[in-house]
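for the record, two folds in this file. i put them one after another cuz i was lazy. first one right below, seq on top, structure tokens after. the second one comes after a little note so u can tell where it starts
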Amino acid sequence: MTRWMAAVGVVMLVGVAHAATLYRWVEPDGVVTYQNTPPPPSATHVRVMHMGSHASPAAVRKAVSLMHPVVLYGAPHCAPCQQVSAYLRRRGVPFRAVDVSRGQSVLRAMKKKTGSTTVPTVMVGKQILVGYIPSVLKNELTAAGYPKAR
């Protein structure tokens, strides 16, 4: 029994250590992506970040697999966009960042998906959040099944 409990403890520690890794990369089309899994071989500007979150990888995978992927529509010099991005990274939420300043086609695609051209706009699954209200984003991520920030 003691060996079994020790084994479970080791597995839990490994899971916590793994959950604290977040990968950032740029797709060939210029889209910046943050995930808790390594990037594809075509990715450039890859960065590995070790986060303070203790969220289990299984909990994050569950939220994403429940059709609640997170997309952040923003622009480089948008302070609220940077705040949203920083919050998502701190919380260990994998997300895709779309830079709408890359051209009219990106802006049109954003408008078609979200009904808005305001940045930041965050999609959590099918829920659309326009602007950055920390409590609203926090609650939406929690409702979607993402682990709470610690």
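(here's the note) second protein begins now
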Amino acid sequence: MAASERYETIVVGVGGMGSATVDHLARRGVDVLGLERYDIPHSKGSSHGVTRIIRRPQFEDPAYVPLVERSFDLWEDLEETHGRELLVRNGSIDVGPAGSDIVRDSRDSCKQYGIEYEELTGDELGERFPGYDLPEDFRGIYQPDGGFVVPEQCIIAHVNRAHDHGAEIHAREQVLGWEPTEDGGVTVETDAASYEADKLVITAGAWAANLVPQLEGLAVPERQVLAWLQPEVPASFQPENFPVFVTETDLGHHYGFPVYDVPGFKFGWFNHLEETVDPDEMNREPTQQDERVLRDFAEQYFPDGAGPTMRLSTCIFTNTPDEHFVLDTLPEHPQVTVGAGFSGHGFKFASVVGEILADLSEEGETEHDIDLFDIERFDG
């Protein structure tokens, strides 16, 4: 094993959140090492899949709205340095039966923060966006500024900019564990070397609880499956004609995207078959059952999009009990910062999460309001 090297900060996990954190730290002049057990980017965790929703209304909790507003700004800034498209603003729709939680909470978050929106009936949605075929008594909160980000390119852009500012990043190097040191720092052991650092940031996704015992039972991996179906009416599913959506229906909560970069109308079912998994042992090959339950939704609510299957892909949600994030330093080890439990709605925030985790690691605090994400909220 190689002799121990010393860094100011080590970031474990260089996916969506970790790549942003390494970038923010490097641009602040921090001597930072990023360690990733797989490739950069890779498809083993939670930060892949071609497109990820970003929307200004936040039905999950209005506290997310200021964070997503900052995230929009940071994605645009990153896109300017990258030279390739990272953010597509083709609108967002939160939709369900009149009076449903998703419609009410999306509307309320718009009103609280003065966000421009329209409330449309199911028929009005179908007239404006022909790919939608929803019941007339549904209501949709349409917001024109939302859309999607391109996750693999976002990670590449953060890593490239971090490299430009002096970061060191290792792929294919698995972290086996870490220990606090007497001088207030940490040692980190990998399958290739031993490192020392003043600070540690853990953004290990589905593997976070393996490295942070306090997260055991609180950051729980769940198998998720996405489908891409070739539309029967392709023009209706192009970005300019098809806003991203989150729906609440009798079939559960689903989310979807226009055709972009690869063939097919992409969509998924939140929490899919509710399969809690070990990320090292899970079945990564989609099954006929996975395809059938996804196709049932498309055939009922987006029939013009329910053509032949082009692609199926698995990913991982890492869920907390309240489905809110964990962004905090460890009470027993304040030199260790954790970003975890993004519960299937985190990637849109990756750019600002990187800023928050860099703040917490460097200063022990941040100007962003993150009271909702305190790790100690689960005590008891």
